[in-house]
Design brief:
heterotetramer, A mainly alpha, B mainly alpha, C mainly alpha, D alpha+beta, B: mainly alpha, C: 6 helices, about 75% helix, elongated, binds heme-A, binds dinuclear copper ion, binds copper (II) ion
Chain lengths: ~625, ~110, ~200, ~350
Amino acid sequence: MATVAVDQRRRLFARPRATTGPASWFSTVDHKKIGILYGVTAFVFLLIGGAEALAIRTQLATPNNTVLSANTYNQFFTMHGLTMIFLVVMPLGAAFMNYFGPLMIGARDVAFPRLNAFSYWVFVLGGIFIYSSFFLGGAPDGGWFGYAPLNETLPGPGMTFYSLGLQILGIASLAGAVNLIITIINMRAPGMTLMRMPVFIWMTLVTQFLLLFAMPIIAVALFQLMFDRVWQANFFNPANGGDPLLWQHLFWLFGHPEVYIMILPAMGIVSEILPTFARKPIFGYAAVVFSGIAIGFMGWGVWAHHMFAAGLGPVANSAFALSTMFIAVPTGVKIFNWIGTLWGGSLHFRTPMLFALGFIAQFIIGGLSGVLHSIVPSDYQQTDTYFIVAHFHYVLFGGSIFALFGAFYYWWPKVFGRLLSEGLGKLHFWLMFIGFNLAFFPMHIVGLKGMPRRIYTYPSGMGWDFLNFIETIGAFTIAVSVLVFIVNVIRTRKHGEEPGDDPWDARTLEWATSSPPAAHNFDEIPIVTSRDDLWHKKYVEDPEGQPVPVIAGGADAQVEEEGHGHIHLPSPSYFPFVASLGLPVIGWGVVYNKPGVMILGGIVILLGVFGWALEPSVEEV
Amino acid sequence: MSQAEHLQEHGHPTPRKYVGVAIVLAILTAIEVTISYIDSLRSILVYVLLVLALVKFELVAAWFMHLRFDNAIFKRLFVTGIVTALLVFGVVLTYFFSHGGPAPSLGG
Amino acid sequence: MSAQEAQVTPVSDHHTSTGLDSVKMAMWAFLGSECLFFGSFISTYLLYRNSVTAGPKPHDVYNIPFTSVSSFVLLMSSLTMVLALSAIQRDDPRQMRVWLLATAMLGMVFISGQIYEFTSFVDEGLHLSTSTFGSSFFVLTGFHGAHVTVGILMLLTLVGMSFFGKLERGSRTVEMVGLYWHFVDIVWIVIFTVVYLIPSNH
Amino acid sequence: MSISHRGKRWLYALVGLLALGLTACSGDEPQNVLAPVGKYALKEDRLWDLTFMFAAVIFVIVEGVLVFTLVKFRHRPGREAAQFHGNTKLEIILTLIPATILAGIAIPTVKTIFDVAEKPANALEVTVVGHQFWWEFRYTGLGPDGTDVVTANELHIPTGQEVYLTLEGKADDVNHSFWVPRLAGTQDVVPGRENHLLMRADTPDTYWGQCKEYCGLSHANMRQRVIAETPADFQTWLAEQQKPGVKPTGGVAAAGQKAFLANACVGCHTIGGTEAAAEVGPNLTHLASRKVFAGALLELNKENLIKWVSDAPSVKPGSRMPSGVKDLGLSPQDVQDIVTYLLTLK
Ligand code: HEA
Ligand code: HEA
Ligand code: CUA
Ligand SMILES: [Cu+2]
């Protein structure tokens, strides 16, 4: 492709060339490095959000406790929820989708590498922006769904930070969604037809479509909130005709697809891990894929189940009860097909497998309590109690986080070339499994005993004391298990076993390349001939249908040398980083209502974007 | 590029065609504005206006944005967005209007 | 942002799985997303236009003849936009620049009209904070105006790049900006009908 | 820990929950959802029992099959995995079973939704207003000359009669949610809107409840009690409430009344029979007839009232009632007098 040679001196920034060293992380456009960045950043946020949770649990360990003031508590539970959802589960999903998306479909990179870097930087800066509120007058304290009109009447800048911080994070998600959708539709290796794609890729695709259409809705709600708070508009101001229910509708129109955004990648991960360790193909591939799509579709028609008690009236409540209940059907399909995948297998209980199984066992509980919420008259009792808190931690932690930890163990050797220790891994799993159930199972009971959520203190004599104490013990057990994981990671850097390219004898393309993969992913773009392509290159079937390894050397016969001369990889660029820097600046400008600062931020964005537009994506070195 | 080839296959719309479409758009706009002043049409006005807007929408999308000539994937991406929006906001607005619109202000 | 990613991706077009241009597909996906964005604002407006607690009601302030003219201007800018594309597809960058400039000019006329409209509404006592109608009107049309402004910036950038010979694969880039521009026009078609022409209750 | 152990853990947990559902203890668990009273809570509870049973059975079966699979197909040397890709017939059956169960559950669900929303003919109507962070109850038209009887935080209802609550959201307040678990599920109080909630108590008792929708700093401290009395007792109570506030007959109480009326208190509270007629805070006409105050956070006694009047926000973070001493300039003597007066307002 023809690239016009551009005079370097005319550039504001000389084109970065280094692909190693600390500075290179700011200019990288390599989807693998960006994946690692996502993963590390999200993990740090997990520790922060977890530390907030531990503070919450400490405060609630005993009745009438005074470790946290009401004010601090409210900021902590809000920031805990926001952090875990927007800064942990979503970006951890993005980490794996970024790293493994292109590898699993046999691509060299994502469709828009610089846009990818932009997404990441916007995400980090959005996170930093929201957290800066702690030092600038108080963090958001209106709950993660920030109901109107409390979100407007709360004093302090917290909820303004909320409206702008989530807005910034939304931009990151939207850019990422466009990027991954196009990558999956358009960047597949030859032969990688849609119905040959790994389930994880399918679930990524569905997730990104949900993001594509859900993010703009919350963006609008957040803009309206911003105008209300900063410029006295009336969108949610009941004293002047605004309707608080509009916020609820807009929020949950986004919010429910959002929860599937958080679970579908996890389901994809589990659908990769199970076949690998059961040593057989996924049961009912088509059903697993289509049920994922069905969940994505149905997820648009159930939002009002978060508003059953808001007074929608019996007709609307019945309709949404029905739509909600029936989401259990496609979800059940997934559960049954996973069990079908295990059935008849030869199950190896390695750490990733344990986490995947933990996911299934716990997600069933969370799913069933979800169905119990959908029984509207019961939900009148359950809503806003700890029964709900139990439900969503079972799906989010017991589900998403368990699967994501499974993914860490599963893909670690691919990313870093070393296996995480099995012994520590199993310890991690069992501690987390026990701690998790200790922390969250009693919440069902406490909820049924009438403990509302979001209360910073409670009197004794309600029958809640003992169970709350147990929950706190459970929470600290989880924290210990996370520490075990950290130890495992540190230990592995030096002492981890180097297991080669395909330690699990796995099935999908990412295992066909070296560990860690070279910058260009594959020396030769693979030609895909079947689903689980790698497996079929490694094994042929004997007459009984049992796999027989291909004669040694067969799989290695793929070309080793750099056959086709130069591979064009996108060149690093600082501009995505520069462009993203403008966003939090605008945010701070709005919080303090300083037009000058907003304009400054706008100029930074323009500079970044112009630089970006004017530089070619690939530059001859 | 595949792009250009594609257009050529289906015959490049000529500038003349584009102008033709624009004239139709202009006429439709004129009609819209005019009928919005005719009181006797008030009862069906909303529907007529919506249909006219839809036609204009469709003309721009089909001709100026080339959806008529391009691969169906593009159309599907766009239409999915439109349909999702229509469905969910249809439900939201139906709900609000069947419940007497936005909150009647009960006073401070 | 997608429009700027106009350069070659690691695997170029004829190698994509669908044979279709990734940037164009990204643009369409983005526009699909924008439908939900404007859908939310338009729905908010529909919800609130009749619940005026204070200040003027919609048809106290609307000046339909004026807005019809500016709508017409925006509609015609779509024509000039597509003519610009047509020109570059015929390899005529000079004429393309003329049409692009014309498009940008029409866009600016539209924006000026909007600024005039906003100021006159404010004079008549309709502010962002007057009523829910004021809030939803200004924010909806304001965001549309912001989109037009971004479009104008992109058009002028294209003209500049083309003038200095920096516009590689110009027809594709022009096409992307064009898609964006037409979309903004389409949104206005809806806004013009739903916000201005359809009568409000009072 | 072995896999079968894990299965048992789940079972124990489940049995624990079941046992809890059966032992409907109330005494020391005043907000226990599973100890319902009166037809509305009972209806909701019956539906819960049904659906929970289904959920429990599904849980046991699915987790059981899962654990069984894990044990049976664990890797053993020499065993190979069977390579099959699916089984369409089985998959269809396994899709239809849950769908059928859900369709079955849907029927009583929808029926109950409509049941608990239907306004009965001769219900007692009370308006409930949510405030940050306390509840106002208005018995419309039951006061003298068609005025309202207004009280706070303690809702008195007669037993054996449906009570139709109109939940009114003040436009300058925020969302709350009125919840008395043993009597009925929750309904939100939405600013600018009206919602409705039905409850009925068949046995006299004091039922506890708590605001359930997060409403700011003292959401945790916004509680309420429902006092269900026999119709006769209820009428007696009502008759008392209809009277104007007790007039002090001199002494400390009179000084207290004077201080009350001379200070900012009068700008926020109503005391029947005096010129205090503001409605920012709770109606205090019969304050001393209540057992709890300040959003049912504190027991009504002299010590607590002194604390409250001196400095409400330190007792209840974010309280809209300013600190008597710090903000309103009351002297400790004023506080003593006012509290003495308030305690006479039976
Ligand atoms: C990962 C995120 C996630 C997932 C996957 C789900 C899944 C589901 N959720 Fe959950 N939900 C949340 C996250 C999630 N939820 C969060 C965060 C909240 C709280 C928000 C807040 O208020 O802060 C919430 C709140 C919430 C509510 C509102 C409660 C309230 O506030 O009053 C409801 C109500 O219906 C609900 C229902 C459901 C249902 C029916 C499912 C279904 O998808 C579950 C389906 C799965 C199964 C049913 C299990 C497996 C199936 C079988 C074994 C087949 C056989 C089963 C049957 C026949 C029943 N959820
Ligand atoms: C993925 C989502 C996710 C995850 C993983 C968690 C994890 C945890 N959450 Fe959850 N939580 C939410 C999402 C999540 N949460 C949401 C959405 C809400 C609703 C918020 C709202 O109402 O607005 C909520 C609310 C919520 C509440 C209710 C608060 C209230 O209503 O008043 C509680 C109470 O116990 C709680 C507890 C916990 C605990 C103990 C953990 C534990 O699992 C955490 C375990 C700890 C760690 C993983 C970190 C380990 C830490 C260390 C090793 C120390 C590190 C040290 C330093 C950094 C100095 N959470
Ligand atoms: Cu009122 Cu919570
Ligand atoms: Cu939901």
